[in-house]
From TrEMBL:
Cofactor(s) needed for function: heme
UniProt keywords, alphabetically: Heme, Iron, Membrane, Metal-binding, Monooxygenase, Oxidoreductase, Transmembrane, Transmembrane helix
Pfam families assigned: p450
Name this protein carries in UniProt: Cytokinin hydroxylase-like
Matches recorded under SUPFAM superfamilies: Cytochrome P450
Presence of the UniProt keyword Phosphoprotein in the record: no
Predominant localisation class: membrane
GO cellular component annotations of the record: membrane
Species of provenance: Canna indica (Indian-shot)
Native organism taxonomy: Eukaryota, Viridiplantae, Streptophyta, Embryophyta, Tracheophyta
Amino acid sequence: MEYFLLYSMGGSLLLSLIAGAISIFWLSPVWKWCRLRKNGLSGPSPHFPLGNLMEMSKKGEASAAPVTHDIHSSVFPYFSRWRNAYGKTFVYWLGTEPFLYVADPEFLKRVTSGAMGKKWGKPNVFKHDRRPMFGTGLVMADGDDWTRHRHIISPAFSMTNLNAMISVMQETTNKMLKEWGEQLALGQHEIDVEIGVTKNAAEIIAKTSFGISEEKGKKVFEKLQLMQKMLFKTNRLVGVPLGKMLSAKKSYQAWKLGKEIDQLLFAIISSRKQEYDSNDGGSTTHRDLLGLLLAGNQDNAQLERKLTTRELVDECKTFFFGGHETTALALSWTLLLLALHPEWQTALRDELMQVSGGRSLDSTMLSRLTKMGWVWNEVLRLYPPAPNVQRQAREDVETGDGVVIPRGTNMWVDAVGMHHDPALWGDDANEFRPERFKEEIHGGCKHRMGFVPFGFGGRICIGRNLTLMEFKIVLSLILREFSLTLSPSYSHSPRIMLSLRPSQGVQLILNKI
Ligand code: HEM
């Protein structure tokens, strides 16, 4: 009898598990799919539980041309195919998660501008995945929490505060240039500049975020770099139920490393707090972002204007992960494009000479490097380091033409697609022409939302002034010392690896000027 009872309990447990699995893997996504179709949102047919992932894993065709900036169909071959078939908005599936693809700036404006912006948050499906990197920091925060964080953090990024970071940026970059100079002295003229600028950007962001002059800061920096590598290798079956189990070991290691980083940052913050308290809130020697946030966090600040220690830890990590790779990639792509366009190297060097006369750079000089600003925009247009922006509908969103985007639908804004669209930029959309930004900030794009290297709306990148300042300093110092040409070993293979990267590095021939 007992045996029979156990047997039947086991049987019903098994049945409920099977029913649950059928519902998660098949019924629920099929129901969502039908709802989207009913709303007129079509796209490639998904096969649950993988959705369209199989088709997305097929590699793009290698380009025969040595260097072409017409990269959309090689970095996003699946979007390129689906765009031809379904237009600039359609739905595709990452596992059982629906994603509304958008490469139509007018549509983007309609569904996100003004009060509509509040209807969107960050996709839950990525939040868990990226937790070790960003925690609950600004990049991942949502709703009132985001408003509070953004409000408190924004003043730290004021131009006055950023100007105090110029000398750190110059010192760190000079170290990189010295290393390159030593390589040249040994007769080694081919340098993979991506390696140097990435190391340099990581060091700059760590110094400007939480300082790495002392032992604990250095350790945080090393561990953050290790974690970055680990998360990069993690096999991601985003959106596929139970997909994370396949990378459980790496995820666990990243989680453990995350804990160690948190402990070190906690220790830095408490010793900074003590230092601040013993100074009686007086002058602080730390002019980094953490120091600025702590200064704004003092006792006399209202409670809602304070960040907890936990929140400060997450913001330090967010600045590191959000800030260094993107900046390094912008610089790497720029060096490549300048190697391909020596006339622009000359133009920038001439401008630099006129503005600074070879003296140490200051904020006024940086603001007068106009042509460098055009080059910056043109590089971010052709090779946006953040190639897409994602959102998730927190409630049903009406698009204005009778279509409703159901709550829970994710949105994937294809920045590469919009930045290379001849309908927005003209027939020369795939050419490097910095002068298109001479007359106006949107570079002649037919729609203001067609150029989104830093995102859009209230969530636009908080670090954009910091990164532009760093870009101008690093590039100026490089151009003052070296001329750049393309090495024959360079192979042009931009790939999406979360960010838009030169997957084989950027090998250039450097010569002292
Ligand atoms: C070329 C360099 C950079 C690029 C291309 C870039 C790109 C972006 C983009 C596209 C977003 C919007 C994401 C979204 O809406 O989902 C963003 C947000 C953000 N970025 Fe950057 N970024 C750069 C540099 C930096 C730097 C240097 C920092 C920090 C020191 C930084 C910190 C952040 C933060 C905290 C957010 C979240 C803002 C919010 O949600 O309120 N970024 N960035």
